[in-house]
Write a structure and sequence with these properties.
Strand order of the largest sheet: 6-5-4-3-2-1-18
Helix content: 25-40%
CATH architecture of the largest domain: 4-Layer Sandwich
Largest sheet: 7 strands, mixed
Number of helices: 11
CATH topology of the largest domain: Metallo-beta-lactamase, Chain A
Strand content: 25-35%
Structural class: alpha/beta
Number of domains: 2
Distance between the termini: 5 Å
CATH class of the largest domain: Alpha Beta
Order of helices and strands: EEEHEHHEHEEEEEHHEEHEEHEHHEHEE
């Protein structure tokens, strides 16, 4: 599982930071969370083929999180995209995508999914859950949850004379089996490995759902637009400070915190990082093209 930051700025791009966009690669899935202006150029620099995309998930419909869609859609058409692109977003995403498709004048195969709070993607190996945040328009945070796995205990199975066999698939599915008259209990023959959780908190003021999204996450990626001396401004425009994001991580049993959506007033992010690390040590400030493996 790999995260690539393609844009880490808030509201407007800077020389160092493009607008919000994060790519999550897991197995055969390449999921783009938000689609800021210039995302196709960022993908080119990062040597990511846009045709690898499987899904785009939009947190809210503000332009700095969506305006990259027309260029991306045209790029996919120009590169003969063969898959069906699944696009998820709040109410209104359908009209926006149809407008963008009409605007670029070219079509690809796509499906639009208007989201509400709850599970929006359910696959065998993972799921994605949307949880509503508190912004000035409808906005969602997300939980990407890897399914639990079972690892076969080959040493235990040796005493039954059982090695490589298609029946082992049943154990991996969490089912006990019978082999040559012996019942083999799944709890003894396998070890349950908990799936990873990545949490995304997008544009929001501090609210209870922030902690709900972050709870027990292996990695929390959170917006952090301001530092705490501008907390009144943050509250007015419904954003988080670095201190608030760090407190969410600390109270929610998060393992690692990465801060993004940085105001252009913070040139190198050092103020953001210092404030957050005073509360939650395992913190980083995202930079464009930074990669993280989970």
């Amino acid at each position: 599982m790999k995260i690539q930051f393609l844009g880490t700025s808030a509201m407007q791009p800077t020389k160092e930071r493009n607008l919000s966009s994060i790519l999550l690669n897991y197995d055969s899935e390449n999921i783009l969370f938000d689609c800021g202006e210039g995302v196709q150029r960022q993908m080119k620099i990062a040597k990511i083929k846009p045709t690898r995309l499987t899904r785009v998930i939009i947190s809210h419909l503000h332009p700095d999180h969506t305006i990259g869609l027309p260029g991306l859609l045209y790029n996919l058409y120009a590169n003969e995209y063969k898959k069906t692109l699944h696009i998820y977003g709040p109410k209104g995403i359908r009209e926006i995508v149809r407008f963008f498709i009409g605007f670029v004048g070219k079509k690809i195969k796509y499906e639009i999914h208007e989201i509400i709070s709850g599970t929006i993607i359910k696959e065998k190996k993972f799921s994605v859950k949307a949880i509503k945040l508190d912004h000035d328009i409808e906005c969602y945070g997300f939980e990407f949850i890897e399914s639990d796995k079972r690892k076969i205990n080959l040493n235990y199975l040796k005493k039954f004379g059982l090695k490589q066999n298609p029946i082992l698939k049943r154990l991996q599915e969490g089912k006990s089996i019978t082999w040559k008259g012996n019942k083999i209990e799944v709890d003894k023959a396998t070890k349950l490995i908990k799936g990873k959780k990545i949490a995304f908190i997008w544009d929001t003021k501090l609210c209870n759902n922030c902690r709900k999204i972050a709870k027990d996450a292996d990695l929390l990626i959170s917006e952090s637009t301001f530092i705490d001396n501008l907390k009144q401004k943050a509250s007015k425009y419904k954003h988080l400070t670095a201190k608030q994001a760090a407190e969410i991580a600390k109270k929610s049993n998060v393992k690692k915190l990465i801060l993004t959506h940085i105001s252009s007033r913070y040139k190198d992010g050092k103020e953001i990082l210092k404030e957050a690390k005073n509360i939650f040590k395992n913190t980083k400030v995202a930079k464009d093209f930074m990669e993280v493996e989970i």
